[in-house]
């Protein structure tokens, strides 16, 4: 398994590697840094793997966004991750866009 990596560009957090339970400090720190923009787009284009604990971290991140009045969006989901978002109903709480640029344009 590869550790989660993040690249932050304004409000866009580009995810790479694996999103698992050990990713919490990385995801949390990236969210905090990007949240200054008022909108955080999680770009899943480079994500290689996500397990159920990683999905739980997304829920935790959503709760943090709601509590701090930050808009949270997702972009770059593969068909597989779109299905996971649908099955877990995350797509009802986190707007999903094809690209990070589309997500930012929607704000």
3D architecture notes:
- This protein has helices spanning 24-34, 52-67, 79-87, 90-93, 100-105; strands at 5-9, 12-19, 39-50, 71-75, 96-97.
- By secondary structure, the chain is α/β, with parallel strands linked by helices.
- It has a 5-stranded mixed beta sheet with strand order 1-2-3-4-5.
- It is globular and about 30 Å long.
- The protein starts with a strand and ends with a helix.
Summary, kept brief:
With 107 residues, this protein is an alpha/beta fold. Helix content is 43%, strand content 30%.
Oligomer: single chain
Number of H/I helices: 5
- Uncertain spans: none
Radius of gyration computed on alpha carbons: 12 Å
Distance from N terminus to C terminus (CA atoms, Å) equals 34 Å
- Percent of residues in β-strands: 25-35%
The strands making up the biggest β-sheet line up spatially as 1-2-3-4-5
Biggest sheet descriptor = 5 strands, mixed
Element string (H = helix, E = strand): EEHEHEHHEH
Structural class: alpha/beta
C-alpha geometry: globular
Tally of strands: 5
Summarize the amount of helix as a percent range: 40-55%
**Average pLDDT level:** 96
């Amino acid at each position: 398994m590869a550790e989660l990596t993040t690249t932050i560009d304004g409000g866009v957090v580009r995810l790479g590697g694996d999103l698992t339970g050990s990713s919490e400090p990385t995801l949390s720190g990236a969210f905090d840094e990007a949240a200054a923009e008022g909108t955080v787009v999680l770009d899943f284009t480079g994500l290689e793997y996500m397990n159920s604990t990683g999905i739980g971290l997304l829920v935790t991140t959503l709760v943090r966004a709601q509590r701090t009045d930050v808009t949270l969006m997702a972009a770059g989901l593969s068909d597989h991750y779109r299905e996971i978002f649908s099955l877990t109903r995350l797509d009802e709480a986190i707007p999903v866009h094809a690209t990070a640029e589309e997500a930012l344009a929607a704000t």
